[in-house]
Structures are given as C-alpha cells and as structure tokens.
Amino acid sequence: xxxxxxxxxxxxxxxxxxxxxxxxxxxxxxxxxxxxxxxxxxxxxxxxxxxxxxxxxxxxxxxxxxxxxxxxxxxxxxxxxxxxxxxxxxxxxxxxxxxxxxxxxxxxxxxxxxxxxxxxxxxxxxxxxxxxxxxxxxxxxxxxxxxxxxxxxxxxxxxxxxxxxxxxxxxxxxxxxxxxxxxxxxxxxxxxxxxxxxxxxxxxxxxxxxxxxxxxxxxxxxxxxxxxxxxxxxxxxxxxxxxxxxxxxxxxxxxxxxxxxxxxxxxxxxxxxxxxxxxxxxxxxxxxxxxxxxxxxxxxxxxxxxxxxxxxxxxxxxxxxxxxxxxxxxxxxxxxxxxxxxxxxxxxxxxxxxxxxxxxxxxxxxxxxxxxxxxxxxxxxxxxxx
Length: 386
Description:
By secondary structure, this protein is α/β, with parallel strands linked by helices. It has helices at 14-26, 36-56, 69-83, 99-110, 128-134, 157-167, 188-191, 240-255, 257-275, 303-312, 332-336, 341-345, 358-375; strands spanning 2-3, 63-66, 90-94, 114-118, 139-143, 172-176, 195-199, 210-214, 282-283, 293-297, 315-316, 347-351. The protein is built from 13 helices and 12 strands. The protein has a 7-stranded mixed β-sheet, sandwiched between helices. Strands 9-10-12 form a 3-stranded antiparallel β-sheet. It has a two-stranded parallel sheet with strand order 1-11. Helix 2 (36-56) runs parallel beside helix 8.
C-alpha cells in the first residue's frame, strides 16, 4: 500500500519515535511536582519550548503547548472573542477554513458575535481588497489559514497582515499554520501574525501535541480551568513525551524545508501534468498551491467510489478534510470556490511527503488511469454512482 494522505497525518520520523519512547521510559514524573523527577520533567518542557520557539523565530514565552491544532484554533478564536468582547464583537474569517476554525466561528455567532466570511476565487484565494473593505473599528479578530487542507491553496498572508494592521491596529490576526509549516517558509513577523497554530502529527511528529504562538502582549481567555499550567492558559498535566517529540519533529521539518519543497513539489508537478491529460478528471488545485496537495474531481462519481477503487490497487487517498471525510455532504471548500455540487461531491485529495517516490507517482498514475477507465462505463445513463 502506498500512503497518499499526508495532509491528514504523517508517518513520524524514526528519531521522533525513539525520542518519545525514551522520555516515556525514563521520565515519568509530573512536571508540577517539586521533587527531582518533577523538576527533570519541567526542564524537558522548558527546553522543548525553546526549540519550538526557535523553529518559529519567536520567544519561548510566546509558545503555548497544546494537544494539537484543534485545541489551538479553539483557544485562539474563542479565547480572543471572550477576552476582547468589550472592544468589539466582529470576527472575519474565510469560507474555506478548517472545521476547527469555521465551526468555532459559527459557535461564536450563536453566542452573539458577528462573523463575516471572506469569499475566495476559483483557486481558493482571498481578495485582499475585500478584506480591507470589511475591517471595522469593532473587528477584534481576523483568522486566515496559511495553506488550505483540501486543495493546497496558499493565502497572501503578508498582504493580509499589512491590511489588517493598517485598517485597525487593535485587530488580532490568527493564522492556522497546520499545512504550511515544513512545506513553505513561515515568517510570523512579516505576516504581523498575533496568533499561529500547529499540530505535531502533520509534520511527522506524534499525535496529541501542538503549538499555539501568542504574541507578547496578547491576552486570551482560558478555555480550561484547573492547575493553571502553561502560565494559566492551558490547565492539565503536560504531555511532555509528546512535547519533546514534537520539538524534535519541528526542528527536523524546518531543516528539511528546502528538500521537501524541491522533491515533493516535483512529484506534485508530475501528477498535475498527468491529471490534465485525462478529460474525465478536473483539477481543483493548481501550480500556485502548496507542494504536497492535489485535489481532483471525477464528476458523476461519488468520491468514495474512486477512493475505494484506488485502494484496491494499493493507493491510499482521502476525501475532504480528515475531520469531515465521513460526512456525506459535498466539500464546503470546493463549493466556496465555485465548484458544482457534483464536482464537490466527487473530489479526492492526494497529499504526499518525503516518503513518496517517483516510482510511487508512476504507480498512482497507472491506478488513476485504470480507475477512470473501469468506472466511466458505470456512469452511462446515470448522474452518479452511490
């Protein structure tokens, strides 16, 4: 089986697995305990925080350690809203955000906040001019993801950050960076980002660990009550085996950024060129996207049918976001990009990493060609296969 679902989760680096196992085996004290084992655990967290901060070019005190990007996004969005509600109740985000951002905004709308959704073009990108026109005195937060998790569309974050701070310096800017770190350059200073979220398992680290960057001076209302870990921002005993492993994965991912962009980008370019030769397939990603994600529709055929046809040939791909792939609705992201319901219901996502090879791509091309040829006759006289 060849794994083409790196946007959902990645195979951990072997070094990361070894590091996490060693910490679990040798260091099991509670970091809040004041005896030696507790202090040793606290030192591991301190050092890991420093490594994570260095990978992002920020201060260690600006790093909040979380269980992953879903928690981080909820903390950034709801924490900002509840903290700064006295300043305003207007929030701006995009129509194509990950569910952890999109649904958090819907939750706030149900609790009295006003949420405005930015449109995207056919490539999935926002129009900075529209953003400029929507920012108001009572806009407390703008949340725009770096790389779309379904299509790989890359947002103009530097332009967005500049516009936000020009229009209202008090408006906070949050970036969901899950699909961007380790794949594309990250410059939080140039973006003027106040909040930024990561999840370790998307960059070959462990599940259950993540980072929320919170710029110095920004206050957030805590979502959890308890022991006041993470400077009171995130109560709960720290998952420090995961934290140490995440720090190692972040450092390795940053070191391999150039290699990833070159090698994986070349595989993606080859796959894009091939898909364009098959009339039955329509690309929802283009050359301007991130180097690891390809989204393609096979109109008239439910995405699950194509997915399982490829799986029979040893190719593991996905549909939509992993968080919503088991729902029957058309992709919200593709609908926002102007695709039809048919196209949005028939799309698969192919996402790759450094473990994939040119030979893997050749096998995937053959599998795609075979699947289309076998499934096309089944659509004769029917609008879709269920």
